[in-house]
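Example record

The entry below shows one chain as it appears in the dataset: sequence first, then structure tokens.
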Amino acid sequence: MNQGPDYQQLYETAESQAGYFAAHQARKCGFSWERLSSNVNAGRFIRIRRGIYRLAQFPGSEYEDLFAAWLRTGPDSVISHESALSLYELSDVLAAEIHVIVPRTSSRRRPKIRQHTHHLDADEITEREGLPVTTAPRSLADVAAAGLAEEQVRLAIREAIERGLTSAGELRSYAMQRGGRFQQIIRSMQLPEDRV
């Protein structure tokens, strides 16, 4: 006997995602397409994009586009690059695409989403505004490697240090590990010494 949709299970899923959920998550909770539509029509769910919804009792997020991209690319994806900098409020560069790092097994392309398949260590991932995001040092290294204008990278580095998102010592250490353009930029900057 079919028990119907489990609103509590869907609420618990959405609550951990700032109220947002994907249609495939709702299906796991027993919601058919018809039931999703009827809840949208009744005002309980708000349709954000095709296949992406928000529970009406949760306020919309200024990062709604990032939530939609993350839900579309799957639970193992992580917001990265310029999109991560926008979450940290370290850049006002308007990227044409939302950047996410996805597992190597993810191959489906999605419009307006730039998927990267870089390896991430657990200590390179954190959470911000309810979204998984690369840490500030990793985000800065990624945009430097991807060719963001050096002036923008330098501004973001200074701002990250000033706001306590990272330290000069942590950036120097991370730059030594990463090498490349990020290391060159860090070496060329006069960063403050860390206070002990």
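Notes for this example: The first strand starts at residue 20 and ends at 22. The chain has nine helices and eight strands.
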